[in-house]
Automatic annotation (TrEMBL):
Summary of the function given for this chain in its UniProt record: Catalyzes the NADPH-dependent formation of L-aspartate-semialdehyde (L-ASA) by the reductive dephosphorylation of L-aspartyl-4-phosphate.
Transmembrane regions: none
Species in which this protein is naturally found: Sphingomonas naasensis
Binding site for substrate: 159, 237
Binding site for phosphate: 101
Subunit structure: Homodimer.
Single GO molecular function: protein dimerization activity
Family indicated by similarity: Belongs to the aspartate-semialdehyde dehydrogenase family.
Protein name listed in UniProt: Aspartate-semialdehyde dehydrogenase
Active site (catalytic residues): 132 (acyl-thioester intermediate), 244 (proton acceptor)
Recorded metabolic or biological pathway in which this protein acts: Amino-acid biosynthesis; L-lysine biosynthesis via DAP pathway; (S)-tetrahydrodipicolinate from L-aspartate: step 2/4; Amino-acid biosynthesis; L-threonine biosynthesis; L-threonine from L-aspartate: step 2/5; Amino-acid biosynthesis; L-methionine biosynthesis via de novo pathway; L-homoserine from L-aspartate: step 2/3
Record-level GO BP terms: 'de novo' L-methionine biosynthetic process; diaminopimelate biosynthetic process; isoleucine biosynthetic process; lysine biosynthetic process via diaminopimelate; threonine biosynthetic process
Top-tier EC class: oxidoreductase
Catalysed conversion reaction: L-aspartate 4-semialdehyde + phosphate + NADP(+) = 4-phospho-L-aspartate + NADPH + H(+)
Length: 342
C-alpha cells in the first residue's frame, strides 16, 4: 500500500523536479494530484519519464481531506494561504518556502544531517525544507562538525538563476540572446543585468546591510546543525542556469588535516568527493545538474587560522536544494511515522 501524494507548484522548476524524483526513486504512490494556480488549471504535465500525463488542478478548489503528504513549492504567499488548510485536514505538508523554517514548532530537515528532528512535525503537521544554499552546505559541514567541532564558517555563494524560478532562467536566456544580436538586456526579475555579469544581492536587504538570503544561511545552519556555529555569508547570483556553488572557509575547535577531512567526506552520506590536484580535478555546476550528490572539491588547509579548512561545494539547487531534499523528507516521514508502504 502506498500514499496519496500531492505536488503543489507542479508547473514550476521545483515542482517538475519533484515529479521527476518521485518517479525516479519509485516513491510508493497510490494516487498523485498535481496542483498549481488558476493560470495552469487543466494543463497536462509529465510524471517524470513514466509516460503518465497528469492534469493540473487549481489549488484553490482542491480538498486535501484523505491525502497523506503534500510537497509544496508555491512560495511563501501560497504556503501561507494553503499549508495550514492542508495540515489541518490531516495531509502532512513538506514546504519548500521560507515561511515556516524558523517556526519552533516546525522541523527544518536535511535527512543526512538531522533526521531525528522530524519527530516534532506533529505539532503543526508541517515540515520545512531549507534554503537551497543552506541544504548543500550543511550536508558538507555535518561530517566535519562531528569530527572536529566547527566554530565559524565564512561562505560565499555563486547561485544559479534557477533559484529565482522559471522567470529567472528566462531572463538569463533572453538577455544572453539579446546581447549577441546587439539588442538591449533590460533587467526585469533581477536588479541588474545578469547575463555576463554577477549580482551580489539575493532576496531583500535587512537593516544591517546583509540580505535575507544571507540571514537564512546563518539561522538555518544553526537550527539544522548546531546553534553554536557562527556563520557569515555573501550570496551572489551568477549567470549559470542550474547548480549552486559555494566557497566555504571553516574554523574548527579541534585539529583536522585536509587529508583527514577528505577521508571523512569520502564516506559521508550525500557527499561525493572529487578532489584531484590537476586540471579539471574538481566539480563545476554544469556537471552536477540532474544529480543527487553534494560535490566537494578543493579541500585544503587554511594556515591563516588555527584548525582551518577551505573547500568548494557544488550541488543541483533544484534537487538537493529543493525537490530531492523534500522527497527524502517524505521517505523519512514514511519510514519513521506514517509506515503505510510495505
Ligand atoms: N528550498 C529552496 O531553497 C528552494 C525553495 N524554493 C521554493 O519553491 C518555490 C517555487 O520555486 P520554483 O519552482 O523555482 O518557482 P517557479 O516560478 O518556477 O514556479 C512557481 C510555482 O508555484 C505556483 N504558484 C505560485 N503562486 C501560487 C499560488 N498562489 N497558488 C498556487 N500555485 C502557485 C506556480 O503555478 P503557475 O504555473 O500556475 O503560476 C508554479 O507552479 C519558491 O517560491 C520557493 O519558495 C525554490 C527553490 C529553492
Ligand atoms: N533564494 C534561492 C531560492 C529560494 O527560493 O530560496 P528560499 O526558498 O529560501 O526563498 C535562490 O534564489 O537561489
Amino acid at each position: 500500500m502506498g500514499y496519496r501524494v500531492v505536488v503543489a507548484g507542479a508547473t514550476g522548476n521545483v515542482g517538475r523536479e519533484m515529479l521527476n524524483i518521485l518517479a525516479e526513486r519509485e516513491f510508493p504512490i497510490d494516487e498523485l494530484a498535481v496542483l498549481a494556480s488558476a493560470r495552469s488549471q487543466g494543463d497536462e504535465i509529465d510524471f517524470g519519464e513514466t509516460g503518465k500525463k497528469l492534469k493540473v488542478q487549481n489549488i484553490e478548489h482542491f480538498d486535501p481531506t484523505g491525502w497523506d503528504i503534500a510537497l509544496f513549492a508555491i512560495g511563501s504567499e501560497g504556503s501561507k494561504l494553503y499549508a495550514p488548510k492542508f495540515a489541518a485536514a490531516g495531509c502532512t505538508v513538506i514546504d519548500n518556502a521560507s515561511l515556516y523554517r524558523m517556526d519552533p514548532d516546525v522541523p527544518l530537515i536535511v535527512p543526512e544531517v538531522n533526521p531525528e528532528a522530524i519527530d516534532g512535525y506533529t505539532k503543526r503537521n508541517i515540515i520545512a525544507n531549507p534554503n537551497c544554499s543552506t541544504a548543500q552546505m550543511v550536508v558538507a559541514l555535518k561530517p566535519l562538525h562531528d569530527a572536529a567541532k566547527i566554530k565559524r564558517v565564512v561562505v560565499a555563494t555563486y547561485q544559479s538563476v534557477s533559484g529565482a524560478g522559471k522567470a529567472g532562467m528566462d531572463e538569463l536566456f533572453e538577455q544572453s540572446r539579446n546581447i549577441f544580436v546587439g539588442d538591449q538586456a533590460e533587467p526585469k526579475k533581477f536588479t541588474k543585468q545578469i547575463a555576463f555579469n554577477v549580482i551580489p544581492h539575493i532576496d531583500s536587504f535587512l537593516d544591517d546591510g546583509s540580505t535575507k538570503e544571507e540571514w537564512k544561511m546563518v539561522v538555518e545552519t544553526k537550527k539544522i546543525l548546531d546553534p553554536k556555529i557562527k556563520v557569515t555569508a555573501t550570496c551572489v547570483r551568477v549567470p549559470v542556469f542550474v547548480g549552486h556553488s559555494e566557497a566555504i572557509n571553516i574554523e574548527f575547535e579541534d585539529e583536522i588535516s585536509a587529508a583527514k577531512a577528505k577521508s571523512i567526506l569520502r564516506e559521508a552520506p550525500g557527499v561525493m568527493l572529487v578532489d584531484k590536484h590537476e586540471d579539471g580535478g574538481y566539480v563545476t555546476p554544469i556537471e552536477c545538474v540532474g544529480e543527487y550528490a553534494t560535490y566537494i572539491s578543493r579541500v585544503r588547509e587554511d594556515s591563516t587560522v588555527d584548525n582551518g579548512l577551505s573547500l568548494w561545494c557544488v550541488s543541483d539547487n533544484l534537487r538537493k536544494g529543493a525537490a530531492l531534499n523534500a522527497v527524502q523528507i517524505a521517505e523519512l516521514l514514511g519510514r519513521r511515522h506514517l509506515k503505510k508502504a510495505a
